Amino acid sequence: MKTKVRVIRLIGAIVFVLAIVFLYWGVKGITNIRPASDYEDMGIHTFVPDRVLPVSVENTSTGRDKRLYPTKTIYVVYYQALDGSGYQWKVETGNKKSDANQILYEGKSVKQRVLSIKDTKKYITVEDELTIDTYVKGQLHQYIWMVGLSIGYLIFCLVVWMVIKRRKNNKTEE
Q1: Rounded mean pLDDT of 115-139?
Q2: Which among 164, 159, 157 is positioned nearest to 18, based on CA atoms?
């Protein structure tokens, strides 16, 4: 019975820390969302796979694997806009070169909407059915869920802590 209680406490503590981390990321994300007025819709463009390149990224493993191999190689498929506009789009396919080459070999075109960021010369590509407003609302919705679930769990932890404390106080008074 005591081991079950310890396991439950450990899991609760881990989820508590995760809730705090997600709360931080959610608030940070909400504050970093650009308003819709910062974007300019450059239209829907058709992209085709152009090339595959290996890219070194940080190894997210833990323990010995991360110490021995601090980076790992993934393969990125780069897409080029067919209309000659120079827009590019990339997709990380994982650590199998054959998967990336299969995408390149198939040559399937993909429609993406290009949103230009007015203050900079940068742009982003989003799914073609998204508009500027739906893209910004989608980002906001995602971060609000992160914050809301985190706050909900933290309130739950506070209530449980208060109930446990009250029960201990009642036992000591008897």
Answers
A1: 92
A2: 157
| Domain carrying residue 152 | 2-32+140-164
DSSP states of the chain as a string? Answer: -HHHHHHHHHHHHHHHHHHHHHHHHHHHHHHHPPPGGGEEEEEEEEEEEEEEEEEEEE----THHHHH-SEEEEEEEEEEETTSS--EEEEEEES-HHHHHHHHHH---EEEEEEEETTSS-EEEEETT--HHHHHHHHHHHHHHHHHHHHHHHHHHHHHHHHHHHHHHHHHH-
Which residues does residue 78 pair with via DSSP β-bridges, in sequence order? 51, 90
Q: Give backbone dihedrals phi and psi of 50, rounded to 5 degrees, phi first.
A: -110, -45
Contact yes or no for 151/23 (Cβ under 8 A): yes
Q: Domains in the chain: how many in total?
A: 2
pLDDT in tens, 28-86: 999 999 999 999 999 999 999 999 999 998 888 888 887 888 888 899 999 999 988 88
- Domain co-membership, 109 together with 152: no
pTM: 0.74
Query: Chain-centre distance of CA 93, in angstroms?
Result: 16
Is there a domain that residue 119 lies in?
A: yes
| Residues contacting 111, CB < 8 A, separation 6+ | 44, 45, 46, 47, 128
